[in-house]
Write a structure and sequence with these properties.
With 315 residues, the chain is mainly alpha-helical. Helices cover 70% and strands 0% of the residues. The chain is built from 16 helices and no strands. It is globular, with a radius of gyration of 19 Å.
């Protein structure tokens, strides 16, 4: 049994500011997701299937998107992205056809092609993504689909880049890490699920605008930094230095101080999001879907933290 160095941090000061509830079909989503993982052969052994089951990613989705009419497609994608993250980052799913290099190659080829799944490379990861692809293309605008493809490419490119950093022993300072982590397609593509859950399709000109970018980066920062806090002990065991907590420890020399600073950073970004919401409420000249996007993001953030507290993924 490993003795925790960091433990589960107290983030209640940040998350008590956000609403939280679960989707009424939580158990049904979890059961259907487990069937899907087996049907599409997302992972290659029963032991890995059971590992995915233990994470209860359907339950996570039900907490993150309680307003979704059908959260199952979201649960499928978030499970897919979790497996992809493990392959690219943790290296815990490597096997004869699940190595990081092949995954980067086939996913990039599929997403960059602009073609439907039938033309994608034949691989466990692309086949699973292709299985759920019609559910996205049938519901979402071409603009959303282009952004989503780009974000999935960012996912594998970011994973490959961080692997090089790890192998080369590259050390980033906190400021550079923050900028780099905002391009992590794991989180970018997960934020795309806000639109899928609500039926919103953010226009490209809104996405490119300064104010929406501020919203987006605030939500990204909260997700990434919270993940770094709750997974800190696991990251240390795996020698994964791509962590805000690890970098802050390098500055402070103290784990409690590093955790306290990181938790304070999370709370400030939550308050930034709430301040932005107030500005949008006071100004009715912006894109009318912004308020719903923010409200959904708030539920998503708190729901993810609810799952963080109970999942065995970071033990």
């Amino acid at each position: 049994m490993n003795t925790p160095i960091v433990g589960m941090p107290d983030l209640s000061a940040a998350y008590r500011l956000l609403p939280c509830r679960s989707h009424p079909c939580l158990d049904e989503v979890e059961s259907a997701l487990r069937r899907w993982v087996r049907e599409v052969g997302l992972v290659e052994s029963e032991a890995l299937v059971e590992r995915v089951d233990r994470c209860r990613l359907g339950e996570m989705t039900a907490w993150m998107f309680p307003m979704a009419d059908d959260p199952l497609p979201i649960a499928k994608y978030l499970t897919w992205v979790t497996v992809a993250d493990d392959i690219l980052d943790d290296g815990q799913l490597r096997g004869q056809d699940m190595d990081a290099e092949t995954t980067v190659e086939v996913v990039r080829a599929a997403m960059s092609s602009g073609q439907p799944p039938g033309s994608w490379p034949d691989h466990r990861m692309t086949n699973a993504l292709g299985d759920l692809w019609p559910e996205f293309t049938g519901a979402m605008s071409p603009a959303w689909q282009r952004r989503f493809r780009r974000h999935v490419v960012n996912l594998v490119d970011f994973g490959a880049r961080w692997s090089r950093y790890q192998n080369d022993g590259t050390r980033l300072d906190v400021a550079l890490y923050v900028r780099e982590s905002r391009t992590d397609g794991v989180y970018e593509s997960s934020l795309d699920m806000i639109e899928f859950a609500t039926g919103l399709c953010v226009p490209d000109e809104v996405c490119r605008g300064t104010e929406f970018h501020r919203l987006w980066t605030a939500v990204m920062d909260v997700i990434v930094w919270t993940n770094d806090l709750v997974s800190a002990d696991k990251d240390l065991r795996d020698d994964d230095m791509a962590s805000l907590v690890v970098m802050l420890h390098g500055e402070t020399g103290s784990w409690p101080q590093a955790v306290e600073r990181a938790a304070g950073m999370v709370e400030r970004r939550v308050r930034d999001l709430l301040d932005a919401e107030l500005r949008y409420q006071a100004d009715d000249t912006g894109w009318p879907g912004t308020g719903q996007w923010i409200e959904t993001a708030k539920y998503m953030l708190h729901g993810l933290q609810q799952w963080n507290i109970v999942t065995p993924r970071y033990l």
